[in-house]
Design a protein that fits this description.
Rossmann fold, 14 helices, 7-stranded parallel beta sheet, 3-stranded parallel beta sheet, 2 domains, disordered N terminus, 391 residues
Amino acid sequence: LSSEPSENPVALPESIHHAVCDEEEGIQGIEEGRREEEEMEEIGKVGKRKRKEEKGKKEKKRHKGKAGGILTNKLFSELAISELTAKAVREMNYTHLTQIQARSIPHLMLGSDVLGSARTGSGKTLAFLIPAVELLHKARFAPRNGTGVVAVCPTRELAMQTHNVAKELMKYHSQTLGYVIGGTNMRSEATQLVEGVNLLVATPGRLLDHLRSTSGFNYKGLQCLIIDEADHILEQNFEEDMKQIFKRLPRDRQTVLFSATQTKRVEDFANLTFGKNEERQRKLVYVGVDDSEFKPTVEGLQQGYCVIPSEERFLVLYAFLRKMQLKQKVKVMVFFSSCSSVKFHAELLNFLGIECYDIHGQLKQQKRTTTFFRFSKEEKGILLCTNVSSR
């Protein structure tokens, strides 16, 4: 057989010819398909990179924007705190410090007395709790050492809220936590105090009761006293109770006072709180006081109002709550001027098919506590209340 190609090649049968052509077209189609897939994949990668870059730019822009309002560019990861506290903060999904946190935490970590002006919702709870937890951690406080930090709050609800934040923050710490508030069983609280509560959250009246009558309550090693919402404490007429508390607590301690407003009465209370020691007064750190740069609590918050005739007010409220009830993950708080008004509207709205919770001063503490926690845990709901829940 000759290896040279024939001048007159043999014609292939038509069926074989079609098969060969189909196979060549198939191979060509596969190659084209592969090229198209590679091109699409490359386009996808480019698009993904662009989206990532755009997201990064938006993120930077967003964080930059935050710095102008309640949040700063300072990160919690930059704070010189223990890994135990840092881990808890990460799990609480906090990344950037607020203005009051950035300005007060460094001073508090150094042990300075601080007088802070901070609006409700500005992040001051973490501002004083993080240094408090770190203080107990560094001093290696144990139950046998008694109470090292006391945080005084004006209302039971605020005390419970502060306790809940502290509980999350102390998740990985060995130090103990507790709260004492009016309306609860004082005997069980006393047992807890005697066993040793390192960080104690309290309302003024109940704290004074325990200081007076609970033998075995060890507070002689107190390192820090925190007074939250000082203006509200004065509004509740707890000034005399606070004077008695100051007399009983060790004077050699760090003192922290936060107030949403700065009035002459608050100023006098601050002088009483920090004492008349001139050197101590000179070293006192003022945070956010007379500071024109301090921005509104939430700059993006939309606020509005409606002027409605008295006879139409309930109809408008009903229509609004009905609309909110249909939405997913929406919480509504409605404030009334009296306990009687809360009770009346709660009964009427529930009767009309709008399920709502109610909290007011005439309820027993157990009921208030249960309602508070239920509403806090719910993803949606309506709460009718007096100013007992405003903070």
